[in-house]
Write a structure and sequence with these properties.
alpha/beta; Rossmann fold; 3 domains; 6-stranded mixed beta sheet; about 30% helix; globular
Length: about 725
C-alpha cells in the first residue's frame, strides 16, 4: 500500500527532474538497496525506492527504529555502498558517476567516531581542512573557529591527543570535522549521541547555524532534537517513509498517549491516585516509586512493575565499597597534573542500581576504568564483595561484567557466538550455556528471525548496543558496570532494555552512567551527580527533586502568526518570564520564581479559543541547576464533538467539574499558600507563586497549540 506522503514526495521529485535541478541540494530518485542473501538466506530489502527532495538551507530529520534502513540510505548517499536501483543527485551530480566531485562539497558525521587516537583534535581538523582545499591563513582560522564552536578550544583541549578525550569530546570533534570547509551537503548520523545536556544544546546551536548555507540530513531517535533542528521530518520504517512533514504538521496529524507524572510525599500517594481517577477514569497507573507515580490515559498494554524498596544490609554484605578512591593523571610536556577522581567514597548493596549523571569529562569514565581494572587508582581502593581491586582483580573478574560506552564486538562473529564465548568465560557449560544464550538473545529482541545467527557486522548500531548489554548480563554476574547502555537506541528498544536491566538488578549491584534523567529515574535506586571528579549530591530521585531548586523553561509551539499573542499570554501568566529562544513559531521563556510541588488543572481561553490540558510537574535539579525532564506526549483528541456546539458543551461540563475540584485539590494537597484557598484561582491571571513545572499538549480540529514546560539542562 502506497503511503500518501511518500507518493506526494515522489511526484515532487519527478517534477523537479524535468526542470533544472541545480537549486535542489539533494534529489533522491527511487533509491533502492537490496542485500542479497547468502548461504540460503533470503534477500534483504533495506531501502524501498526512496524519493526525497531537500533544498539548500533545510535540515531534514530521519527518525525510525534501529534496523529500519536509515544507515543504508546514508551509506549510499556518501558512496560507501552502491544503490541496487535508482540514484540520487547532489547539486546536480549523480552519486553513481560523480562521487569524486561530490566529496569536495560533502561532510559526514558518522554514528561511530572515526578518529586517530594519537592525533590531536587540531591535527584532525587540519587534515580534513586540507582535504577541503583550505590553505594557509584560511585553514588556520577555520580550524580555530571549528574548535571554538564545539567548545574544544580553550584550555588547550584541541591540542591534546584524541585518545585522552571523553566520549562526548570525541563526538563534538566529529561534528566539527563534518562542517569544516563549508560543505554544501552534510550527513549527520545521530550527532548528539552520548553528549551531556550542556554539550548537546551547544551542538544544536552549531547545527542550526550551519544549516543556513547548506542542506543537512540528520538521523536521530530524539523527537526533541528533531523539533529543534529539523525543518522537515520523515518517519522511516522497514526501508521507507511512513510519513513526511514539518514537526507541527506531524503533531497535528498523528496522536499518541498522554502520560501524567505526579510527585508528592509518599503519604499522599493514595489521594493522588484517587484524584487522577476522578480526572480520567480510564487512566492506569504505569509507574510508582517513592511518591512519584505515572498514569496513562489509554488502554495500551503498559503495565509496569513497581520497583521494590531496598533495605541496606550490613556493610560486610555490600557488593561495592569504594574507599577514598582517587585518580590523578600526571602532566606531560610541562602540562599540569589532572585530578580526574577526587577521593570518592561509595557503598552499593546487592539489588541496587546506582546512577551516575554528569557532563562529559567529569571523571565518570575514569572511575569505572579503575573499578574494572583498566587503570590503577592513585590512592584509595574499592572492595567488590570484599575483594580489593588493587590485589584481587582476577577473582573479581569472575563476578564482574561491563557494558562499555562503545561496543567492543567482532564484526565477523554472530551475536550467538559472542554470547557463547562470554558465557564460557563465566563457566557456563553445555545445556546451561545454550539455554542462557537463547534467553539472552530473547531478552534483547535478537532471537526471532534468526537475527542472533547473523554476523555482527550486519547489525544496526542499536542491535549492537543491545548485544553489548546482553553480553554484560550473561552468567548472572554479581556486579555490572553499564556506561550509557541505551545510547543510540530507538524508544521501543530502550524501553525493552530498561525492563532487562530492572530484572537484572534483582540479583546484582549495577553502576550505570547516563545523561538521561528519565532513564536514571526509571532504573536507579540512588543517583549521584558527578562534576569535576566528585559527587555534588547523592540520594534517590525523589530526595534530589525535593532538596534542590532550579529554574523553569516554558516552551510554546504555535504557527508563526500567533507568536505575539503567545508572548503576551506568557507575560500575563508570569510577568517575570523572559524569552530566551525564538524560531519559526517555537518560543522558550524562562522564569526562576515558580515554587515546587504543585499540579494545576485549568482552562486557557485568551488568544486560543478553548484548549484542554493537564499540566505536568516534576523537578530534576542538582546544585541549584536542573537535571532533565519528563513530559506528556501529544495525542489526537479529534472526535465528533469538535464543532462549536460540542466545544461549548465540553466547556460547561468541565467548568462544572473543575470549580469544586479546584477547592478539593487545594485542600487535599495543602496548596493554600499559593491561592489562599480560593476555588476560582483559574479565572484570573496567574500569580508567580501559584505555578509549578508543567508540560502539556492540546489539540483541536485543524489547529494546535503545544505547550511544554521543562527545566533547563544541567551545565
Amino acid at each position: 500500500m502506497d503511503i500518501p506522503d511518500a507518493v506526494q514526495e515522489r511526484e515532487a521529485v519527478e517534477q523537479l527532474l524535468l526542470e533544472p535541478i541545480a537549486n535542489e541540494a539533494i534529489l533522491s530518485d527511487n533509491l533502492k538497496k537490496v542485500y542479497h542473501g547468502k548461504d540460503g538466506n533470503p534477500d534483504k530489502l533495506a531501502v524501498r525506492g526512496l524519493s526525497l527532495a531537500i533544498p539548500k538551507g533545510q535540515c531534514f530529520g530521519m527518525l525510525g527504529p534501529n534496523g529500519a534502513g536509515k544507515a543504508s540510505f546514508i551509506s549510499m548517499m556518501i558512496g560507501l555502498i552502491p544503490p541496487t536501483f535508482g540514484t540520487a543527485y547532489v547539486h546536480g551530480m549523480d552519486i553513481k558517476t560523480d562521487m569524486d566531485a561530490i566529496y569536495t562539497n560533502m561532510g559526514v558525521c558518522p554514528q561511530h567516531d572515526l578518529l586517530w587516537e594519537t592525533l590531536t583534535g587540531r591535527e584532525h581538523l587540519l587534515f580534513y581542512g586540507r582535504l577541503k582545499n583550505l590553505k594557509f591563513t584560511e585553514l588556520l582560522t577555520a580550524v580555530d573557529d571549528s574548535l571554538k564552536s564545539v567548545k574544544l578550544f580553550h584550555g588547550g583541549v584541541g591540542d591534546k591527543q584524541v585518545g585522552k578525550y571523553s566520549g562526548g569530546m570525541k563526538r563534538r570533534l566529529s561534528v566539527a570535522i563534518s562542517l569544516i570547509g563549508d560543505p554544501k551537503v552534510v550527513f549527520m548520523d545521530e550527532p548528539s549521541i552520548g553528549l551531556d545536556l550542556a554539550s548537546r544544546n551547544n551542538l544544536w546551536s552549531v547545527v542550526k547555524e550551519a544549516k543556513r548555507n547548506r542542506a543537512i540530513i540528520l538521523t536521530t531517535h530524539s523527537m526533541e532534537e528533531a523539533e529543534v533542528l529539523c525543518d522537515r521530518l520523515g518517519i522511516f520504517v522497514d526501508g521507507g517513509f511512513q510519513c513526511l512533514g514539518n514537526p507541527k504538521e506531524l503533531k497535528d496529524r498523528y496522536g499518541g498517549t498522554y502520560v501524567l507524572t505526579m510527585t508528592t510525599s509518599s503519604e499522599n500517594e493514595q489521594e493522588v491516585e484517587q484524584l487522577v481517577q476522578r480526572l480520567s477514569p480510564n487512566a492506569s497507573r504505569i509507574y510508582h516509586i517513592l511518591g512519584t507515580q505515572k498514569f496513562e490515559d489509554t488502554g495500551f498494554p503498559s503495565k509496569r512493575e513497581a520497583v521494590e524498596q531496598l533495605l541496606l544490609e550490613p556493610i560486610a554484605n555490600e557488593a561495592i565499597l569504594s574507599d577514598n578512591l582517587k585518580k590523578v593523571y600526571h602532566g606531560k610536556d610541562g602540562n599540569p597534573n589532572k585530578v580526574a577522581v577526587r577521593g570518592l567514597s561509595l557503598a552499593i548493596p546487592k539489588g541496587q542500581c546506582f546512577g551516575m549523571l554528569g557532563p562529559n569529562g567529569a571523571g565518570k569514565a575514569s572511575f569505572i576504568s579503575m573499578m574494572i581494572g583498566l587503570i590503577p587508582p592513585t590512592s584509595g581502593t574499592t572492595y567488590v564483595h570484599g575483594m580489593d581491586i588493587k590485589t584481587d582483580m582476577d577473582a573479581i573478574y569472575t563476578n564482574m561484567v561491563v557494558c562499555p560506552q562503545h561496543d567492543l564486538l567482532w564484526e565477523t562473529l554472530t551475536g550467538r557466538e559472542h554470547l557463547l564465548f562470554y558465557g564460557r568465560l563465566k563457566n557456563l557449560k553445555v545445556t546451561e550455556l545454550l539455554t542462557a544464550v537463547d534467553d539472552s538473545l530473547k531478552s534483547v529482541k535478537l532471537f526471532h528471525g534468526g537475527v542472533g545467527d547473523k554476523q555482527v557486522g550486519k547489525y544496526s548500531g542499536g542491535m549492537k548496543r543491545r548485544l553489548s548489554v546482553a553480553i554484560s548480563l550473561i552468567g548472572d554476574p554479581k556486579v555490572v558496570f553499564m556506561d550509557e547502555p541505551t545510547t543510540g537506541l530507538d524508544l521501543a528498544s530502550r524501553n525493552n532494555l530498561w525492563s532487562v536491566v530492572k530484572e537484572a538488578k534483582r540479583n546484582s549491584a549495577i553502576i550505570l552512567t547516563t545523561h538521561s534523567m528519565e532513564e536514571a529515574e526509571v532504573l536507579c535506586d540512588r543517583l549521584g551527580i558527578f562534576v569535576d571528579g566528585g559527587f555534588q549530591c547523592l540520594g534517590n530521585p525523589k530526595e534530589l527533586k525535593d532538596k534542590y531548586g532550579g529554574t523553569y523553561v516554558l516552551t510554546m509551539i504555535t504557527s508563526s502568526e500567533n507568536e505575539q499573542e503567545v508572548e503576551q499570554l506568557v507575560q500575563r501568566l508570569s510577568p517575570n518570564a523572559s524569552r530566551i529562544y525564538h524560531i519559526l513559531g517555537t518560543q522558550k521563556f524562562e522564569d526562576t520564581g515558580f515554587p515546587k510541588g504543585w499540579i494545576v488543572v485549568m482552562e486557557i481561553i485568551p488568544g486560543f479559543s478553548l484548549y484542554r490540558g493537564l499540566y505536568e510537574f516534576g523537578q530534576y535539579v542538582s546544585a541549584g541547576k536542573s537535571m532533565g525532564t519528563t513530559g506528556m506526549k501529544s495525542s489526537n483528541l479529534d472526535d465528533s464533538l469538535n464543532g462549536m456546539r460540542g466545544v461549548l458543551i465540553i466547556m460547561v461540563v468541565e467548568w462544572a467539574i473543575l470549580l469544586p475540584l479546584a477547592f478539593c485539590v487545594d485542600q487535599v494537597l495543602s496548596l493554600g499558600g499559593g491561592f489562599k484557598k480560593n476555588p476560582f484561582f483559574f479565572l484570573g491571571c496567574f500569580k508567580k507563586r501559584a505555578v509549578s513545572l508543567w508540560r502539556y499538549s492540546f489539540r483541536r480540529q485543524r489547529s494546535k497549540v503545544v505547550i511544554e514546560m521543562d527545566i533547563p539542562d544541567l551545565h
